[in-house]
Prior knowledge:
Blueprint: H1 2-18, E1 23-36, E2 39-53, E3 57-60, E4 63-68, E5 72-75, E6 79-82, E7 87-92, E8 97-102, E9 105-110, E10 123-128, E11 141-143, E12 146-162, H2 168-193
Antiparallel strand pairs: 1-2, 1-12, 2-5, 3-4, 4-7, 5-6, 7-8, 8-9, 10-12, 11-12
Amino acid sequence: xxxxxxxxxxxxxxxxxxxxxxxxxxxxxxxxxxxxxxxxxxxxxxxxxxxxxxxxxxxxxxxxxxxxxxxxxxxxxxxxxxxxxxxxxxxxxxxxxxxxxxxxxxxxxxxxxxxxxxxxxxxxxxxxxxxxxxxxxxxxxxxxxxxxxxxxxxxxxxxxxxxxxxxxxxxxxxxxxxxxxxxxxxxxxxxxxx
Length: 194
């Protein structure tokens, strides 16, 4: 019995130590003009939201990438729409650039704070006033609201927001407490029945 309790505690601590991933949401905003499914928009605060998980971050050729399962765009006056296809967020510390892509990079922000960022922690918001250099790539991008084209995007910002998750050690102690309560209740039951 004692060996089973000790092995359960050890397994709980081991599995808790492995669960270091955290939810993270990347948010890109900018004043944009373009069209969605033939409907024009002009000088609106376009917001791209890309929720992901830090466990999905990979490093390749000095850059970090996080493939996000669903990304969306909000255009005031038109609504919120999901991008169709595989979306990703990237950061290349060597070049000081962070961005978003779907079938190619469509948002890029160059700035010194990105020289040390790795997509794994909360960040910003960081304002990047110049034009988005990837606007020419943002042509006929598929969304749930139709094809979207952005012709201009400036007054940009980037922010990463992490969601609070319990510390792995807290989870281990919670499990340890549950095991102790179970053992105590069993001991009391055996003691009271004799």
